Amino acid sequence: KAGVTQTPRYLIKTRGQQVTLSCSPISGHRSVSWYQQTPGQGLQFLFEYFSETQRNKGNFPGRFSGRQFSNSRSEMNVSTLELGDSALYLCASSLYGGGNEAFFGQGTRLTVV
Amino acid sequence: AQKITQTQPGMFVQEKEAVTLDCTYDTSDPSYGLFWYKQPSSGEMIFLIYQGSYDQQNATEGRYSLNFQKARKSANLVISASQLGDSAMYFCAMREFNTGNQFYFGTGTSLTVIP
User: Which residues make Cβ contacts (< 8 Å) with residue B56, sequence separation at least 6?
Assistant: First the structure.
């Protein structure tokens, strides 16, 4: 059974650009959540998608957006990149979003220069 | 107030010894779950163990056990017989099942296993 796949693993972008990150959940899982991890702020919740609908959203500016496709794959987009957006972005896959399991991908390490 | 508190930024343990990583939590939701994840330098968050708020017994998964003290709101991770491969960051996390299911993470504990 394949795990959670995040692409790309590494990205370097320039301030002002936009970026799209991808997350393919475990087969059969319908919930995908995104988290930002930085040394200063730790792990913070961005948003959760379930069955193509955003079900929950963290406290991030509107430059951060996402979507989920019918095959449960999810993308998150960050527009007008700032230096402070440099982080490890992790996605978590689970069957329905709650419960006793959530599996994370290896993350996408974004560097904004 | 912090939902999850991990007070040990760094811990050292001798190989083959046991180690306890501390975690306290704060919630008013009666239905919640507590998780421990291991994050090696590669970045992936590896699920270790889960404890539900209604579970009567402490969870165990191989060398990992969770010391759940509900009244004290603590969920400490015990790793027995430490191995060199256990060196990593360890995160305690909580989900509140009546309020959105998102994870609240602690700041993590860096564990170093000494040969």
Answer: none
